[in-house]
Structure formats: structure tokens, C-alpha cells
TrEMBL record:
Membrane-spanning intervals of the chain: none
Keywords: Hydrolase, Metal-binding, Multifunctional enzyme, NADP, Oxidoreductase, Riboflavin biosynthesis, Zinc
Cofactor(s) this protein requires: Zn(2+)
Catalytic activity: 5-amino-6-(5-phospho-D-ribitylamino)uracil + NADP(+) = 5-amino-6-(5-phospho-D-ribosylamino)uracil + NADPH + H(+); 2,5-diamino-6-hydroxy-4-(5-phosphoribosylamino)-pyrimidine + H2O + H(+) = 5-amino-6-(5-phospho-D-ribosylamino)uracil + NH4(+)
One Gene Ontology molecular-function label: diaminohydroxyphosphoribosylaminopyrimidine deaminase activity
Keyword Oxidoreductase tagged: yes
Protein name as annotated: Riboflavin biosynthesis protein RibD
SUPFAM superfamilies hit by this protein: Cytidine deaminase-like (SSF53927), Dihydrofolate reductase-like (SSF53597)
Amino acid sequence: MKIHEKYIKRCIELAKNGLGTTYPNPLVGSVIVYENEIIGEGWHKKSGEPHAEVNAVNSVKDKSLLSKSTIYVSLEPCSHFGKTPPCCDLIIANNIPNVVIGTVDPNEKVAGKGIKKLIEAGKKLTVGVLEDECNELNKRFFTFHQKQRPYIILKWAETLDGFIAPNEILRKALNDKEQKPVWITNPYSRQLVHKWRSEEHAILVGTQTVIDDNPTLTVRDWTGSNPIRIVLDRKNRIPKENHIFNNEATTILISDGNQKSEDSNLIFERIDFNGTIAEEITAVLYKHNIQSVIIEGGRQMLQTFIDANLWDEVRVFKGTISFENGTKAPDLYSTLAEKQTILDDQLLIFRNHD
Ligand code: AOF
Ligand code: ZN
């Protein structure tokens, strides 16, 4: 492996230590190399705290080596005064002569200005090492800044014959009589879904899904923070006793009227339901600085985002059960309960490259 790639790879590895705590900042890692040896390492741990480069420089024991070293950073060093001072100034002040950068910062406050400043200061620059990997590392941050919308993940589980869980199956199997969720997938995939929820900033579901399933939309089976719950409820049909109104997480309720909230955990937003709903919703999320959202149903909501081509990733669990086998509905329900431990659900993942 080429030498620059080796160290940027290490930067990416370090950056991942900040997963879940850097928002709204990106994940960034940095290493300082002197004569082919790493003499300092750092990553950005938390928004408001020092950037990766600062932690890397501070970790170097013999500061006199800095003027003969190369600093590697997975993201362009910043040039602006934000919550912390510019990293470019730090590199210049410490006389570090060589800078290797993974990718350019899409944040308009930086976006090339850091590179320009370093060139003007006479630094030897290499830009774009493992660029794709560095962009992928911060796919949510990049999408948010470049497309002015969150990174959108669509997720559902479906039976072999294409019913999506759980409300469609419920209606199909029980003819709308009973209100208990039915699962297509196994406990492991459910736990994985909770992990996924913890990785995203918000979770979105439609009205019917909330009414049918009364979901909590939290990460009960995983550690981590709950995403902000986004619920579409045009005509306020969702009963106030539903779990999504509990105070385990913040909820943003989107309807077509103006409403005032007395509860700090509940935010009302209004959109034009005659417009392109997917675009209207993403505009609300952008306004709230939400960098990523996982959309978990129902079918109509998922279809709306697919039709608008407003998605970045689709994750589908293909279950091993089907419904079109002529069995009577109540029997189907008990069969499902037995099959809860099936372990070979198939996971399909699609990426949108438009
Ligand atoms: C870097 N190194 O480790 C990070 C950078 O409010 P501040 O001062 O924390 O600045 C946040 C912005 O700085 C953030 O939006 C992104 O553009 C950049 N993040 N830059 O040089 C880092 N985390
Ligand atoms: Zn910085």
C-alpha cells in the first residue's frame, strides 16, 4: 500500500472513535509522521471540543520534530473560527511543512479555504488520498452540506410475497381485527434495526404505521441515543396516548395546520400536503439541522420517497415466510409466532448513485 494511503487509512480508523458524539461536526482523524514513524495521533471527539489536528499535535512529545514532519488529516483542515480556532493556523504556527488531506470539507465555511490558506503559507500539500473512503466516512455530513438535505435511508422488512411488516401483514392475516404487531424478521435483525436507529439523527414514519403499530421508535435493544422521531399526521389522527408522544425522545409532528406545543419534547411543523411531500418533509428536517434520517414505513411513505428519488440507501430484510399459500388467517398468525427464531433472513442493501 502506498505510504500516504496507509496513514490516511489510520486517520479514518481514528476518526471512527468519534462515532455518535461529533454531531453536527464530522468524524475526523489525524496522524503526524516523522521519518516514517507515527509520532502523534488524534481525532475529533465531540462538537465544541478540539479538532483532530489539535489532539494530534498535542499528543506529540517532542514538539521540535513538528517542523520536519507531515500531518495527515482525513478532512481538509478548517480555516474559520467556529467553536474552536482554525486548524490551519495551528499547522502554520507549529511549522509543519507537509500536509496530506483525504478530502475537501463541504462545509461552505471551509470548502477549499483551508487548502488555499495552507498553500499561501508555503506548505507542501497532497489532496485527495483515499478520497472515496473519506467521503463515505462522513456520508451524512457530506449529503447535508452538498444537497441541503439529510442522508436518507429507507428500511423495511418484507415477506417472500412482498408484504411489508408489520401493519400490512397484520391486515392481511387478521383482516383488521386484532392489533398486535407481527414480525417477519428474527430477534437479531430487530436488534440490528435498533443499532441502525442509534446511528441516525432522526427516524420517520407515516400516520398509518403509528396508528396500526403504536411504535416507540427508540433503541431499546441497543445502547446509544434515540433518534428524533418524525411523524407525519396531516389531520391529527394519532391518539395522544400513543408511544411516540412519550418523553423518551423528542418528536416532531408534521401536519397541515398551525399548532402550538406546551411540551418541550414535542415540536409541531406544518407542510403543504398538496406539494411534493417528500421534498416538504426533507425541508423541515434540514431546517432542524438533521443530517440523517431512517424511514421505516409504511409503504406509502417509502413509495413517496422512492418516487421523488429522495433516498441514499435502501435496506430490506427479506423474510422467509409468505402469505399467499391458502392457509386461513388465524393459523398464519400462530405460524408466524413460531417462526420468530428464523435466522436466515436475507438483507438486501441498495445505494443510490444518482
Ligand atoms: C477540522 N478538524 O477535526 C473537524 C473539522 O464549530 P467548530 O469550530 O467545531 O467547527 C466545526 C466545523 O469544522 C465543521 O462543520 C467542519 O466543517 C469542520 N470540522 N475540521 O479541521 C476536525 N471536526
Ligand atoms: Zn479544525
